[in-house]
Amino acid sequence: MISVYHYMTVAAILFAMGTYGVLTRKNAIVIFMCIELMLNSVNLTFIALSRHLNNMDGQIFVFFVMAVAAAEAAVGLALMISFYRNRESIDVEEIDLLKW
Amino acid sequence: MYNYLWLIPIMPLIGCIINGLLGKKFIRSEKAIGAIATIAVFLPFLLSVKYFFQLLGDPVKTHQQVIMSWMSVGDLQIDWGFLFDPLTALMLLVVTGVGSLIHLYSIGYMHGDPGYYRFFSYLNLFVFAMLMLVMGNNAMVMFIGWEGVGLCSYLLIGFYIDKKSAGDAAKKAFVVNRVGDFGFLIGVFLVFWTLGSEHGIWTLNFVDLAEHGHLLGFGGTIVTAATLCFFLGATGKSAQIPLYTWLPDAMEGPTPVSALIHAATMVTAGVYMIGRMNVLFAMSPTTMMTVAIIGAATAIFAASIGFAQNDIKRVLAYSTVSQLGYMFMAMGVGAFTAGIFHLMTHAFFKACLFLGSGSVIHAMHHALHKAHLHDDPQDMRNMGGLRKKMPITFITFAVSCVAIAGVPGLSAFFSKDEILWYTFASTRGAWYIWAIGLVAAGMTAFYMFRCLYMTFYGKEKTDPKAKDHIHESPLVITIPLMVLGLLAVIGGYVGVPAVLGGANHIHHFLEPVFGHAQEAYNIGIKEALYHNYAVEYFMIALSIAMAFLGIAAATVMYLMKPELPAAFTRTFSTLHRVVFNKWYVDELYDAIVVNPVKSFGTFCWKAFDVKVVDGIVNGVGKLTNLFSAGLRYTQTGLFHNYALAMVLGMVVMVAIFVLR
Predict the structure, then answer these.
(1) Which helix (H) or strand (E) holds B71?
(2) Do the beta carbons of residue B329 and residue B336 sit within 8 Å?
(3) pLDDT for the residue A47
(4) Are B84 and B51 in contact (CB under 8 A)?
(5) Rounded CA separation B83/B16 (Å)
(6) In chain B, whose CA is at the least distance from the CA of A92?
(7) Which residues of B fall within a CB distance of 8 Å from A23?
(8) What is the pLDDT of residues B520-556, one digit of tens each?
(9) CA distance A100 to chain B (A)
(10) Angle at B318 between CA B313 and CA B319, to 5 degrees
């Protein structure tokens, strides 16, 4: 029997993988995909707990997250394209102008 | 009955607005500007004359007209209201009558000045403020006028904006007047509060104050304090010791201004104010005595300075201070009518003297200008022998000189004699005040004839190159001179005393204003002297003798033996120097008031403002800078550092949540 704990565990593992990717990778697209991974782990938690608690709020929330993630992906990709046009690279290590 | 009273102050205000807004760009023509301004004062004069005669035949002597409510806060109710009674009627005639003559004169005197429109705009504004002052039916409307005339005085003294001395004089006049205004306000508050909180009568209305003033109690502390505060206000506005120093400096303004503001109208505001509040003053013998003594001291002190001045306008300025001293003497001994009477005659002969001096200065200025000389056109040592060149100016000036000296039959003889008689005979009078007044009368005769002789008689001391360019002024200047000269002769006949077989009309006319207080507080002629014509005749003879003594002394010194003054100056060189330098009063004030205030200001600026205030403000900035100098290196600009910080923060928060 797969209980809510299993779902939670999978979500935690997914979240940790996403976080690790965000902190270590240099390619902006990959970082972006890692953030999606983190978002999806959260979505998974929402749905599992929604089912567990017999409360539909969590599932509705997931729709919001997905909609916002789609919008965010559009804006993020546009940013990256315009950055690539200027620098011919999407390496985040090179984006460091906004500092002291 | 008196429905159009409000038109009297409004018309000059309209004239001021028209000339002030449109004069420079749209009207431009000097004739049009001058005509608008003069008519804006002349129409109120006609209206005042009409109402004056209406009042003469009216059994009710006090009329009030409320235009609208000004402010109404709790028990405080102040209206835009006008009062019309014999005192106001007389002041209206003086202000608008002499005012319109001086406006007419200014058309000629200011000809060609780049600030022509500005001058007439200010002049009309002044007349408006002065009319508010004398017509207000409560202390606050009067205060509007009181401050308004102060402002206009400032604007007009500093009219020649490119002259530093004029600006300084204007500032001095304004600042000195502030001291007086402060006293006036405190006095108003004191009376208002005491009558309100102790007797439930919350009022600033003059009619109500006169009616309920007795509640304050005869000789009470409050009434004495309040009236002393009022008197402080009067010393500022009317140039009495200790606040007289601004008036001689005010001569920096154009001469018509000196005639209108600093001789005929504004400086008499203090006298008028005491007259308006006569009930309160009558209740405080202490204040009355102070007023009389200060008046007498000012009269003789200013007259002594007049001895040694060489600037024709300064002589007249000190003479004005001295004559105002006479008016305060009269007010102080309870001879309110005599004070107002002298105010009126003084307005005539002093305005005439000032305008006459203006005519001389005007002629001198043009002559020196044509000869390309830079001599001072106001210095009497550059004049002399002008009587043949400027006959009309000479005759009117001489007539006014004779009048002010107190020669029998002319206006000041009646008014000044009445004051001297009351200082001696009034129940509030004293022999020493009379004695000072008598000596000052002789001194007045002396320095006025000195001025007359130096200007119009003797050798022509003007530079030969300029001499032939001196001409009589145009008609627009000489007509006001002739009218005022005539008034200086006949103005006194409204108050011929009973002892000389007159009816003393002005006494009966002003009776409704002053009679009540004089009766209630036993102010009048001492019983022993009542109808004692022998003493009165003797007094009159004495003052006539004094006047002729002064004239004779001046004639000997300045006409017959012109070398005498120089010899006198050499013999008493120290005395002459002290008097010439105005007893060093300005220097004294500089030392004890002006300089300490200035150094306190410098201290506040350099020590307090720069070090403390600026130090705190700059210190906050510097401190922020110091902190940020270290902290800003945490902003690396690298994406991973920020992400790591966020993750660490999240871990910490979760840890706190879990381990709690």
Answers:
(1) strand B63-73
(2) no
(3) 94
(4) yes
(5) 23
(6) B639
(7) 640, 643-644, 647
(8) 888 888 887 777 788 888 889 999 999 999 999 999 9
(9) 6
(10) 90
Phi and psi for A49 in degrees, rounded to 5? -70, -35
Q: CA B97 to CA A69: how far, in whole Å? A: 89
Query: Which residues of B are less than 8 Å from A92 in CB distance?
Result: 638-640
**Average predicted confidence (pLDDT) for chain B:** 91
Beta bridge partners of B593: none
And the tokens for B601?
A: 């200001």
The answer to whether A97 contacts B637, with C-beta atoms less than 8 Å apart, is: yes
**pLDDT tens digits for B330-355?**
999 999 999 999 999 999 999 999 99
Integer Cα distance of B329 and B429 in angstroms: 9
pLDDT of residue B376: 84
d(CA B468, CA B476): 22
On whether the CB atoms of residues B106 and B250 are closer than 8 A, the answer is no
**Amino acid in the structure at residue B628:** S
Nearest partner of B410 among B436, B445, B385, judged by Cα: B445
User: Which of A19, A93, A100 has the CB atom closest to B647's CB atom?
Assistant: A19
Backbone φ and ψ for B67, nearest 5 degrees, come out as -80, -50
Rounded to the nearest 10 degrees, what angle do helices B7-22 and B30-56 cross at? 170
Residue A99 has its nearest CB partner, among B636, B640, B644, at B636
Which residues lie closer than 8 Å to B143 by C-beta, 6 or more apart?
A: B136, B184, B185, B188
**CB-nearest partner of A100 from B633, B640, B644:** B633
In whole angstroms, what is the distance from residue A92 CA to residue B639 CA? Answer: 6
Residue B638: predicted pLDDT: 86
**Cβ proximity of B93 and B49 under 8 Å:** yes
| Residue B502 banded pLDDT, cuts 50, 70, 90 | confident
| Burial of A68 per CB tally in 10 Å (0-12, 13-18, 19+) | exposed
The residues, ordered by sequence, that sit 6+ positions from B442 with a Cβ below 8 Å of its Cβ are B546, B547, B549, B550
Closest CB to B643 among A22, A98, A100: A22
Sign of the Cα pseudo-torsion (B386, B389, B395, B397, in order):
negative
B645: closest CA of chain A, how far (Å): 10
Q: What is the full DSSP assignment across B16-51?
A: HHHHHHHIIIII--HHHHHHHHHHHHHHHHHHHHHH
